[in-house]
Each structure stands twice: as structure tokens, then as C-alpha cells.
């Protein structure tokens, strides 16, 4: 709170220009500031803006030998091809389905978890719970996949061991299309649900305790307090995070999906990002997959702007 | 300023709340959730220390059966694992130093009112948060910079994360302006102020950022997949992935105790080995990461 207000107001009054003389004198005086900012600016220009402008290759027929500039313009041909290609529809559907499940499960679970954790009073147990639920967040996706594949293994996985125990035959979870989406979404929840509670817990710590006391005097039980005080207080945070999540609807992340895919389950597990990698980078269809990437970014932008406008209209909360 | 005033009412209200019906429902639910979080990890650990026969007979749950370290001996006997470990260590350490230097040196000017280019630089950064370039133009850039098959490709593209930059900036903004002002009155130049006053104050923030960057670098898999084809440069995550998806039975020949080896046990052992460095710093991680997250949430 404090930091954001001081961001607007300059903390020291810059000296009037007349005193220091000219523009030149200012830059000379604060030369160090300008100099040390150069590598960072250069970084953004080179590593972020060059590829951004390079995206115009989506409207060209990129030829490795001709290079970026000399390749031929083809307009929207790659975008058209995208929608005619039968695989594209399937992959878009996969992306939407996995994104939808993520929104449906991975988004609300941390809120519920944070509400539960907020009810804990014993300090030691609270500490233990935090340590346990944050832990998986620090494992790489490759490790998470390794653990999940191990647990679900039909021969020696814990899951099938338990199933066999109850007389159910082993299931080859990784080898069947029908499980892959649940595995991707579930492993995401397992890894990050605990971690995502932090931001909600921080918001809850900021709630004025007098409110609870007053509610208690009025005879409100804990559920009632949660419903009438905690959840309304969390609503702005929830709204902002929800809008960000909507913006990333198609941006599930390459790593977290790719590590679970194999030739057996790709049919329902392939998403736009993994398709771009396979067809673009591996098979060399540069312009076509850049068009897909651009399409994805534009949809993300449209979604976030649409959701933001809708949210501002209905709740008054928005990102900007 | 309000830390002292809020701490007492919190404890009072929590005692009142506790007196009103102590329920065991919520602690029980949370205990189950903790088990779900931890059981898979214990199972992997147990398998990695169990004999092939015990794993094959499905006798391993959460504790090693017929304890053996031969899986680890077989893995650690591989020179290629050590090599990948070394690559990951180099990338993590050097990459973190680069990232810290780059992030801090841009975040600091952006926190100063005297820095007149503030506005457009902030916009420049914000746009990259909203709009990401697709994969192929990024790949072609790395190619044109002749960074394909070099470790630079793993360290440089992520050198400044826009989010971390804003967190760092809000930290610098919190340093009182009087400090900078008084240093100037004492005759210190900008460079001296930065070196003698700002950086020592920024140590905790730098530690937080350093840990955030190093975990990301250690765990990153995609960049290596995109930009490296030279097997000698593969970091640990790529190596690990190969172990997990391929049959690793060829490893067995290097081990002294072949009878106790199993492909499953070997895989589990590699997973554990790749995770040990992260787990060793986990206590610090937890502390600093949460601080960083809090800083970030204050900003937004």
C-alpha cells in the first residue's frame, strides 16, 4: 500500500532546471542512473521486442535461405490454413478443455484451501501444513511428471497397488487418452494449489480483526464470519487473479503439458504450445506455427480485455 | 507502524474464536491434504531405496523394503549424470548472477524520481507482460545471435522477469528518500550512493530475488529443449526426462549389485538426485519466496 502511493509521488523534488542549467547538466549529474539502466532496456528490446516484431513472419512464407526480410508476403494464408487443418480443431479443443478444467478446479481450490488454513490456530500444526503444501511448488515439471508417472505405473505404481489391493485390475493411466487431461490438471493442482494460497492468506491477514470481534458479539459462528467477512474481503483479490487467469486461458504453459505426453495419450493431450513445438520447431513449419502463436496471443489479449470490461461493469473491480 | 497495533487484537480475537467450539473437522481435512501432498514424494523415496524384487512384487509403499543403495550407486557411477549436474550448476549460479545484476540495475533507476525516462521504460516493460512473442521468432533470434548450443541460451532469455523487476522496484521505492538526499549533501556521487547505501540495504531483497531466479533456472526444461541439440550441454532436467521416458536398463551393467537394480528404482533414484539440491535450500526458499510474493502482492 505504502509503496504504491510513493510510486506516484516523486520522493525528492527534482531541482528546477534553471538552477542546474541545461538538460545536459541533468543527464551529466545523473549519468550513473542512465548508464546502469541501459543493459536492462537493451535486454527488453533485443529479447522481447525483436521476436515480437519478428512475428510478422506469420504473414510471410518464411524461407530459411532468404531470411526474414526477403521471404515472400502471403497475407493471411497461414491463418486460413490453420482453420482448414483438421488437427488444428482437435488441438484447439484440447487446449480449451484443459484450460477450462484448470479454471474450474485449479482456480477455486487454493481459495478453499486458504480459507481452511486460515481457520487453523495451533502454530506448530499451521507451520507443518504450510511446509507440506508449499513443497511441491519447488519441484520442476520434469520431476512432477516423473513422480506422477511413477505413482500411476501399472506395474509398480502406488495408485495401482492400492487398486489391486481392493481387487481392481491395474489401469495403464499414462497409456490411455481418457486420463491425460485429468492427469495434467490434477498434477497442476497438486504442485501449485498450496503455493497459490499465499496471496489469499496475505489478503486475509490484512482484514481488520475488529470485524470478527463485532460479528462474534452479534452471535455469528465461524462459517457465518467466513461468509460475511472473509470472503467479501477476498473478493477484489479473487477478481484480479481470475481476470489474469482468463487472460492465460490458452496459455497453459508448454512444459507442464509436454512432460506428460506420449504417443498413446497425445490425441487428447496435445495443446497449442506443444503443437507449435512439434510442428514448428521440430518439423520446421516456421510461419504457420508463428501464425498459431499470434492467434493464441490475440485471443488471450481479447479475453483479458473483455473480462476486464465485464468485471468493471458488474463489480467495479478491474486490472486497470 | 500498524504492526504493533494490530498484533494484540488478533491474539485476543483468536482466543475468543477458539473458545467458541473447537472443531476437529478442519484440521483433519488439512491433515489429509498434507498426506496427499507428501505421500507421492515418500513413495518415490522408498522405491529408490528398495530392491528390484520388492518393487516387482508391489511390496513398497512408504518405507524402503529390502533396503539397498545400489540404484544410487548405478546412477552416480554414470559420468553423463555428473556432467549434466555440472551444467545445471553452472547455468544456475552464473544465470542467477546475471539476472540479479540486470534486474537490479534497471529496477533502481526506475525507482528514482530523477530518472526522466521512467515512463516510457515502464511502458516498454509492461507491454511484454501482456503480449508474448511466439516460439519461432524467439528461436530465430537465439539462432541469429549464435547462441544455439551454448549455455547463454539458457541464461540470457530469462535474465529479467518483468514481474521480478516490478517487485525489485517496489523494494527500492520503499527506501526513504532522505537517505539518498543526505548522502548527496555529504558529497557522495550517484555511484557512491548506490554502492555504499542502496546495495547494502537491498541485500535481503537481492537474496529473495536470487533464490527465485535460481529455482527457475535449475528447474527450467523448455529452453534446453528448444535451443540445445548438443548432448554434452544437456542440463539435469533434460537428462532426467530421458531417464523417465526411456528404458534405463543399460545402466545396470555399470553397477556392482545387478540383482538389486530395477528400471523403476533407477528412475526414482534419478528423480531424487535432481531434487536434492532444491530440497536442501527449501527452508530458505520458503522464507524468502513468501517475502517476495508478499512484496509482489503489495504492488498489485
Give a description of the structure.
The complex is a heterodimer of chains A (320) and B (300). With 320 residues, chain A is mostly helical. Chain A folds into two domains: 47 residues, no CATH class; 239 residues, Orthogonal Bundle (MetI-like fold). In chain A, strands 1-2 form a two-stranded antiparallel sheet. In chain A, α12 crosses α14, α14 runs antiparallel to α18 and α17 runs antiparallel to α18. The longest helix of chain A is centred in the middle third of the chain and has 29 residues. Chain B is globular, with a radius of gyration of 25 Å. Chain B has 300 residues and is mostly helical. In chain B, α2 packs across α15. Chain B has a domain of 154 residues: Orthogonal Bundle (MetI-like fold), CATH 1.10.3720.10. Chain B is built from 15 helices and no strands. Chains A and B meet through α1, α4, α8, α9 and α10 of A and α1, α2, α5, α6 and α7 of B.
Q: How many strand segments of chain B?
A: 0
Helix content of chain B: over 70%
CATH superfamily of the largest domain in chain A: MetI-like
Structural class of chain B: mainly alpha
CATH topology of the largest domain in chain A, by name, is MetI-like fold
Order of helices and strands of chain A: HHHHEHEHHHHHHHHHHHHH
Query: Can you tell me the residue ranges of chain B where pLDDT is under 50 for at least 5 consecutive residues?
Result: 1-13, 15-21
CATH hierarchy, class of the domain at 79-232 in chain B? Mainly Alpha
